[in-house]
Amino acid sequence: MKSNDSAIKLDELSSNIPHWYDPEGDGVPLTEGCGATVTDAAGDSYLDFVSSLYCVNAGHDDQRIIEAITDQLGRIPYVSSAKENDARARLADALADVAPEPLTDVTFSVSGSEANELAIQIARESQDAPKVLTRWQSYHGSTYGAASLTGDPETRNAVQSHAATTGGVKFLPPLPDVFDAEGAELAEKAADHVEFVIRNEGPDSIAAIVIEPVAGSSGGFPAPPGYFERLRELCDEYDILLIADEVITGFGRCGEMFGMQTEGVDPDMITFAKGVTSSYVPLGGVLMREAIADRVRDGGTAVGQTFAGHPVACAAGLAALEAYEDGLIDNVQSLAPVLREELEALAERHDVVAEVRGRGFLWGVVVEDPETGEPFANAWVDDDAENPVEDVAEAARDAGLLVGVGRPNFQLLVAPPLCIDESDIYDAVETLDEAFTAVFE
């Protein structure tokens, strides 16, 4: 059991103001990492089952990535994003090689938010149309353009409280409680709803649909079988681009290099970040079909970012891809059934766990009041309500396990690094089991 000695207030640490800062909350100042374990300033260690921010896919000390970064720093630490660079070109080629076959070209950004903004900028110019469709209860970033795509009102309202970006249209996510259906019926109803939105917005006004293959921080839920196939058909029928936001689902997290490869459906673009370098260095970008890339090349680009495709990040990305292909993705495929079975057993032991859902190493644990079938709290509706889900995450942290709290906050997110072993799964779920017992029994 961990003490709370390592949990310190912001003003006790430094002048830094963290992102997602809660002035009432306690922080854990992490100072070291090894594999799937992180250590705080007080020397307490934690099993990191949220991959820091769903992003440290290769673990916290992969020497191949560290050595690649060091080597690149020794050769040339920075090259303008307007110029060519060997690390940048090699990573672009490597990404095209591992992406779904129709995606042939890459343009880089710095973060996932900026990758999504870049993709919709390209889509709007390519399609000569202003609107982009995304799901309610989604997260695509927190810059102005990306927040307009985000279906999470907590983020969208915070960013756009004084100025909003136009062109964002929402549709309902393919969840059983939304359409009162499951399986093939759910896929049909949810896809019919998307077509209804397309027809009522006007197909010619829509540039793209942006969607996560498996929901990320909004709960780790996959789409029902057949849903993405139908979305692909709708996009082809109405001449709309299908953009997969793979900022979280990319680079092995769902059991293949990209989450869309677990669906067997080819998008027109993929946005990526986080896992591309295992987050050792910031990097994002957009993979696209050749026809889209040709339009971009023919017209040139009038805007850019200083740090897009940073050579050090690209060197890290090349090493990370090698690590994923050298056993880490195989590890996900091998251990994902174990993680699923353990989480499902957790749900059987606790009647407050209404559902576990996910794919690969990305899982949501949904918590509801068994008497009402409703969440105990939802910050999107009442941000002052007491939330036992956050208490579970805190109890797990105190016992040495880090998990995420989803959007909305009636669910936990379990997303370990790809380098874990079977014993880590048993230890993590046992700790989570004890945390649920401590809070609810």
Descriptive labels:
Aspartate Aminotransferase, domain 2, Aspartate Aminotransferase, domain 1, 16% strand, alpha/beta, 441 residues
CATH class of the largest domain: Alpha Beta
> Counting H and I runs of at least 4 residues, what is the number of helices?
14
Strands, total number: 15
Roughly how much helix do the residues carry, as a percent range? 40-55%
User: Based on the structure given, which CATH architecture of the largest domain is correct?
Assistant: 3-Layer(aba) Sandwich
**What is the mean predicted local confidence, pLDDT?**
93
Task: State the low-pLDDT regions, or none.
Answer: none
**What's the CATH topology name of the largest domain?**
Aspartate Aminotransferase, domain 2
What does the overall shape look like?
globular
| Whole-number total of structural domains | 2
**Helix and strand composition category:** alpha/beta
Strand content: 15-25%
In whole angstroms, the N-to-C terminal distance is 18 Å
Layout of strands and helices, then pairs:
Blueprint: H1 10-13, E1 30-34, E2 37-40, E3 45-48, H2 51-54, H3 63-75, H4 86-98, E4 103-109, H5 112-127, E5 131-135, H6 144-149, H7 153-159, E6 168-171, H8 176-179, H9 183-201, E7 206-211, H10 227-238, E8 241-245, E9 269-272, E10 284-289, H11 290-299, H12 311-349, E11 353-359, E12 362-367, H13 388-398, E13 401-402, E14 404-405, E15 411-414, H14 422-440
Parallel strand pairs: 3-13, 5-6, 5-7, 7-8, 8-9
Antiparallel strand pairs: 1-2, 2-3, 4-10, 9-10, 11-12, 12-15, 14-15
Helix pairs in contact: 3-12, 4-12, 9-10, 12-14, 13-14
